[in-house]
Amino acid sequence: MKKIKGGVTAPQGFSAMGLNAGIKKDKKDMAMIYSVVPCTAAGTFTTNQVKAAPVKWDQKMIYENEFSQAVVCNSGVANACTGEEGMKYCEEMAQETAAMLGIDKESVLVASTGVIGAQLPMDKIVNGIGMLVPTLDASLDGGHLAAEAIMTTDTVPKEVAVELMIGGKKVTIGGMCKGSGMIHPNMCTMLGFITTDVNISKDLLYEALSNDIKDTFNMISVDGDTSTNDTVLLLANGLAENKKITEKNKDYYKFVEALHEVTVTLSKKIAGDGEGATALLEVKMINCESKEQAVTLAKSVVTSSLVKAAIYGHDANWGRILCAMGYSTAKFNPDSVDIYFESKVGKLKIVENGRATDYSEKMATKILSEPEVTTIADVKMGDCEATAWGCDLTHEYVSINADYRS
């Protein structure tokens, strides 16, 4: 397996485009992904009880239909808390896209991101669909433009692609996502679109995605807010022509490994681009008694406002880490925990058996001044581990969200 350039158009048979349809003043705000053949599809969605209309539409389409073939997405308006009118607009988006592409309405998935509570400007949406379809581009540029068009407060587009051999055939997986704020474990306002030319059954595609999400997108947090619109869609068109994966064999696990590389890369891109963030914070819990314990501890630390603020200040305030572990509800012995800080400039043990080591504050500050910082807690209770990703908490985060609608 190797990483290659590109995103959702890297696999065979997929094209995409992103452009400005007038929902936003001067930024791209609509995107489309299309496969030349119908795709097996899987999706995972927000756990928030308040689910946006596109989430409900996609759940119905994926669960009740065998194939999907296109995704249309708008940025700027979330189509959340919009009642029956919002659902009608989802259907209208799908119908308009299907008519222009010559495919079934039920094979079109929709996604929206942006301000909650506002109705979609359907005149602009319909016009945007009319501009997207004839400009769909199978090159890497098409995928990149689509990645730009789904951004809200993101500062950079987020893409990744990998290729590998399965059954003697070259298989590619590509992805793009958006997310910067309202990000919290349990599907994070994030949208993720993953495409692949692998030939795989719907059941195994869904199992691969749903199992992987637990260790990737569900392990990131920017601000503790779980969105109404969180969606990850995975489309597989089979054009790699490998022998269809219908059982959990060697080919299946190779696909699972490659999918994980895509999702963990996208997850880290979201966490590192948190609103106002200056650093990606990685939290590793090692030698835990169970996976559940490790996940609980890692999430508690990565979501701690005090830990996040300390990372912003490049302050090795390890007491905040131990404190966050302590209120996590996971049982452990604080007097046995070792804590380390690590970045590309080095690794430093700052706590041993629950007490501070004679570490260098200067070296700690140097480590914490890097754009990617890792904190490691060794719980010494077993051999299970978990990793969570987040970011520092800055003044800029408040500024961005204080006037988000204006």
UniProtKB/TrEMBL annotation:
Q: From which domain of life does this come? A: Bacteria
Q: What is its main location?
A: cytoplasm
| InterPro entries the UniProt entry points to | Arg_biosynth_ArgJ, ArgJ-like_dom_sf, ArgJ_beta_C
Q: Where in the cell is it found?
A: Cytoplasm
Record site feature (Involved in the stabilization of negative charge on the oxyanion by the formation of the oxyanion hole), residues: 113-114
SUPFAM superfamilies with a match to the protein in the record:
DmpA/ArgJ-like (SSF56266)
- Reaction catalysis annotation: L-glutamate + acetyl-CoA = N-acetyl-L-glutamate + CoA + H(+); N(2)-acetyl-L-ornithine + L-glutamate = N-acetyl-L-glutamate + L-ornithine
Name its pathway: Amino-acid biosynthesis; L-arginine biosynthesis; L-ornithine and N-acetyl-L-glutamate from L-glutamate and N(2)-acetyl-L-ornithine (cyclic): step 1/1; Amino-acid biosynthesis; L-arginine biosynthesis; N(2)-acetyl-L-ornithine from L-glutamate: step 1/4
* Active-site residues (renumbered): 189 (nucleophile)
Q: Cite the binding residues for substrate.
A: 152, 178, 189, 275, 401, 406
Q: What keywords are annotated for this sequence in UniProt?
A: Acyltransferase, Amino-acid biosynthesis, Arginine biosynthesis, Autocatalytic cleavage, Cytoplasm, Multifunctional enzyme, Transferase
Q: If you read the UniProt record, what top EC class would you report for this enzyme, in one word? A: transferase
The record, for Pfam families, names: ArgJ (PF01960)
One annotated GO molecular function is: L-glutamate N-acetyltransferase activity, acting on acetyl-L-ornithine as donor
Is Kinase given among the entry's keywords? no
Tell me its EC number(s), please.
Answer: 2.3.1.35, 2.3.1.1
Q: Which NCBIfam families does the annotation name?
A: ArgJ (TIGR00120), PRK05388.1 (NF003802)
UniProt subunit comment: Heterotetramer of two alpha and two beta chains.
Q: What does this protein do?
A: Catalyzes two activities which are involved in the cyclic version of arginine biosynthesis: the synthesis of N-acetylglutamate from glutamate and acetyl-CoA as the acetyl donor, and of ornithine by transacetylation between N(2)-acetylornithine and glutamate.
Give the family this protein belongs to, as stated in its UniProt record: Belongs to the ArgJ family.
Q: What protein does this entry describe?
A: Arginine biosynthesis bifunctional protein ArgJ
What is the species of this protein?
Eubacterium album
Q: What taxonomic classification does the UniProt entry list for its organism?
A: Bacteria, Bacillati, Bacillota, Clostridia, Eubacteriales
